[in-house]
Amino acid sequence: MKTFLKRSGVLKGFTLIELLVVIAIIGILASIVLASLNTARQKSRDARRLADIKSTQLALELFFDSCGKYPEPFAAATLASSMNSTVCTVGATTQALSLYLATAPANPTPGGATYLYTAAAGGATYSLTFSLEGATGTMASGAHTASPSGIN
């Protein structure tokens, strides 16, 4: 009996199998958390894209109210290059889109697709092309177009 007590008193700590099981459980939990985090980041970027497009639409409508037409780039252009490409004169002042939209929004994904702005001849209408990474609300992932009639 004395040898058993001495022996059991010396054996303190965890076995190798217990440590491996705990490490495996921690690894599984970490992978679940990282997968959820990536999904949340994707949804956040898509929400930012939609907010950028809506604020740009508002700026374009304000420009239209002041000038009677939408800005006309020379060809399909990124939104950033269209900011000062078209100006109109209202009274004694010259206005550009940058008056209503201080900086052109950029795609929240580094290296992602840029927002493409095109306008009809005469500035009667416009289209803003952008893409979503995943389904957001009622919109599917992929390319979409915003125009004066809304977002398709």
UniProtKB/TrEMBL annotation:
Gene3D superfamilies hit by this protein: Glycoprotein, Type 4 Pilin
Classification via Pfam families: N_methyl
Protein name, entry field: Type II secretion system protein GspG C-terminal domain-containing protein
Cellular component terms per the entry's GO annotation: membrane
SUPFAM superfamilies attached to this UniProt entry: Pili subunits
Keywords from the named record: Membrane, Methylation, Transmembrane, Transmembrane helix
NCBIfam families: IV_pilin_GFxxxE
TM ranges: 20-40
Alphabetical list of InterPro entries matching this protein: N_methyl_site, Pilin-like
Membrane-related topology note: Single-pass membrane protein
Subcellular location: Membrane
Chief localization: membrane
